[in-house]
Amino acid sequence: MPRTIRITRSHKLATAVLVAAGSVTAIAATGGQSDAQPSAAKTSIAVEKVAGIPTAKEAAAKKAAQETAAKKAVAERKAAAEKAVADRKAEAKKSAEKARSEKQAANRSTERKAVAAPKQYKNNLDGWIRESLDIMKKKNIPGSYEGLHRNIMRESSGNPNAVNDWDVNAQNGIPSKGLLQVIQPTFDAYHVNGTEKKLTDPVANITAAANYAADKYGSIDNVDSAY
Q1: Do residues 158 and 179 lie in contact, with contact meaning Cβ atoms separated by under 8 Å?
Q2: Nearest Cα to 52, choosing from 13, 11, 101?
Q3: CA 130 and chain centroid, separation
Q4: Mapping DSSP to helix (H, G, I), strand (E, B) and coil, where does residue 177 land?
Q5: Whether the predicted model's global pTM rises above the 0.70 cut
Q6: What DSSP element (H or E) covers 91?
Q7: What does the angle CA 114 – CA 117 – CA 119 come to, to the nearest 5 degrees?
Q8: Cα 122 to chain center, whole Å?
Q9: CA atoms within 13 A on the CB side of 53
Q10: Partners of 182 in beta bridges
Q11: pLDDT at residue 110, as a whole number
């Protein structure tokens, strides 16, 4: 029956070095008494248990863990990149919606202004002159507040219902009427669209007279007497 070989700490260290080099040829006996070589199986068991040298199973497990960690890191980076793209798209969409909302609000505001109530004028001589001037401006009819007011005061003293019943026109059956004493044929010929078709209407009378004066004298401002 073979004798059992007692392997000391020195034997184990020597064996570890030999395994790392790729060959195990012998186990040196240093101070121990031995007459026989141990079997290959017993030697393998002794070597695998040397501190600091992982077994094949442990190495495989470590490699698998490293591969799993690497895959996880790649997946996390991919997820982070996809999230960043999604966040940018969401922010762009939010900005576009905000801009669209602001534009729609601005359009509604413009529409409200467009349908706002028309400008109001006082129902007196000042208001009639100012309304006439706005219409004249749109129709490119020259004339100023001063020119209109001056001629109105001379012709009718500001009375929109004034009627001249004594001059040649009256004698011919077409008396001068209104603020600027206009006869019906002249009113019909120089009536300004957008005003009443009534000779004694203050605004219609003023704008028709100013239109006539612009044609005959260049402007109502150039009229200083009966015209």
Answers
A1: yes
A2: 13
A3: 41
A4: strand
A5: no
A6: helix 56-114
A7: 105
A8: 43
A9: 16
A10: 177
A11: 72
**Per-residue confidence (pLDDT) for residue 35, from 0 to 100:** 44
Q: Alpha-carbon distance 223 to 7, whole Å? A: 140
What does residue 119 show for φ and ψ, rounded to 5 degrees?
-60, 135
Q: Give the number of other CB atoms < 10 A from CB of residue 38.
A: 16
- CB neighbours of residue 198 within 10 Å: 14
Place of tokens 């007497």: 225
- DSSP lists the bridge partners of residue 163 as 177
The highest-confidence range among 2-6, 64-68, 70-74, 217-221, by mean pLDDT, is 217-221
Mean per-residue pLDDT of the chain: 83
User: Burial of 141 by CB count in 10 Å (0-12 exposed, 13-18 middle, 19+ buried)?
Assistant: buried
Cβ contact 125:158 at 8 Å: yes
Q: Which residues pair with 177 in a beta bridge?
A: 163, 182
C-alpha 73: how far from chain center: 39
Tokens 């100013």, residue?
210
Tell me which range, 68-82, 115-129, 192-206, is most confidently predicted by mean pLDDT.
192-206
Q: Which of 18-27, 90-99, 130-139 has the highest mean pLDDT?
A: 130-139
C-beta separation of 27 from 14 below 8 A: yes
The token duo for 181 is 């004493």
Q: What are phi and psi of 133, to 5 degrees?
A: -60, -40
Residue percentage of the chain with pLDDT more than 70: 75
Tokens of 212: 């006539």
Between the two ends of the chain, the Cα-to-Cα distance in Å is: 157
One-letter amino acid at 39 equals S
